[in-house]
Design a protein that fits this description.
single chain; 231 residues; alpha/beta; Rossmann fold; two-stranded antiparallel sheet; 9 helices; 13% strand; binds adenosine monophosphate
Length: 231
C-alpha cells in the first residue's frame, strides 16, 4: 500500500498514520517529523527549515522534495508507506509522481481527512508532543501516561511540550497556508481517481475504522468507488 494522508494541521493525520504503520507494517513517513529531527540534530536541512516552520510557513519545495526522494530511495519501506504531510503543494505532488514513476510505482490512494476548523483548533490547543520520540498526545482525547512526579509524560519517558508551531497565532497562519497551498491537492487527486475522504471528527478508533474500511476492503484500488466517503 502506497498512500498519502492529506488534511489540515491538527486533523489527526499523524495519529492515524502511526496507527496504520503499527497495525499493517506500513512505513510512516512524516516530513514534519523529519524536519523536527533535523532541527534537533542541527543538520543543514534543519537550520534551513526552522525559520519557515516557526512562522507557520511551508519549507521551500526543493528542500522537501529532496528529503522525500532520499527517504523513498531507502529499501526499508516494509508493506509500503504512508506519507503524512507530503505533498503539500501541487509541485510537490508532481515531483512525487515522478519519483515513484522512476521506480515503476504509483500511489494506491490519497486520503483526505476532514474536520470543522473549530474542532481542529480545539485539537491543536490540547496537543502535547514528545521531542524525543515524536509521539503526539492530546490532553483529553489521547492522554499521556503520568510520570513519577505526577506530571504527564511520554511512554518513552520524554518530557512533553507544546510544539512551537502549535501556538494559536502560528496555527492560524498554518491554516491559511493549508487552504491556499494544500487544499487544491484534493481536486488534483480527485481528478486522478485516487481521493478517499474520511470524516475525522470522531474518536481515534472510529476514524481508524472508517479508514480501514475504505482502504482495505479493496475500495482504494477500485477507482470508481474511492470517493465513497463523500456520499
Ligand atoms: P507537520 O508536522 O506536518 O504539521 O509539519 C510541520 C511543519 O513542517 C509545517 O508547518 C511546515 O513548515 C513544515 N513541513 C512539513 N511538511 C512539509 C511539506 N511537505 N512542505 C513544506 N513544508 C513542510
Amino acid at each position: 500500500m502506497r498512500c498519502v494522508f492529506l488534511g489540515p494541521p491538527g486533523v489527526g493525520k499523524g495519529t492515524q498514520a502511526e496507527l496504520m504503520a503499527g497495525r499493517y507494517g506500513i512505513t510512516k513517513i512524516s516530513t514534519g517529523d523529519m524536519f523536527r529531527d533535523a532541527i534537533t540534530t542541527k543538520s543543514e536541512i534543519g537550520l534551513r527549515a526552522k525559520a519557515f516552520m516557526d512562522a507557520g510557513h511551508l519549507v521551500p519545495d526543493s528542500v522537501v522534495i529532496g528529503l522525500v526522494e532520499e527517504r523513498l530511495s531507502r529499501g526499508d519501506l516494509g508493506q509500503g508507506f504512508v506519507l503524512d504531510g507530503f505533498p503539500r503543494t501541487v509541485p510537490q505532488a508532481e515531483a512525487l509522481e515522478e519519483i515513484l514513476a522512476r521506480k515503476g510505482q504509483s500511489l494506491d490512494a490519497v486520503v483526505l481527512f476532514q474536520a470543522p476548523e473549530e474542532e481542529i483548533i480545539r485539537r491543536i490547543s490540547g496537543r502535547l508532543y514528545c521531542p524525543i520520540c515524536q509521539k503526539l498526545y492530546h490532553k483529553t482525547s489521547s492522554p499521556p501516561p503520568t510520570g513519577p512526579d505526577g506530571e504527564p509524560q511520554c511512554a518513552c519517558g520524554g518530557k512533553l511540550v507544546q510544539r512551537k508551531d502549535d501556538r494559536p497565532e502560528t496555527v492560524r497562519e498554518r491554516l491559511k497556508v493549508y487552504w491556499k497551498e494544500t487544499a487544491p491537492l484534493a481536486d488534483y487527486y480527485r481528478a486522478k481517481g485516487l481521493l478517499i475522504t474520511v470524516d475525522a471528527t470522531g474518536s481515534v478508533e472510529k476514524v481508524a475504522q472508517q479508514l480501514r474500511d475504505q482502504l482495505f476492503l479493496g475500495r482504494a484500488h477500485d477507482h470508481s468507488q474511492v470517493e465513497r466517503g463523500d456520499r
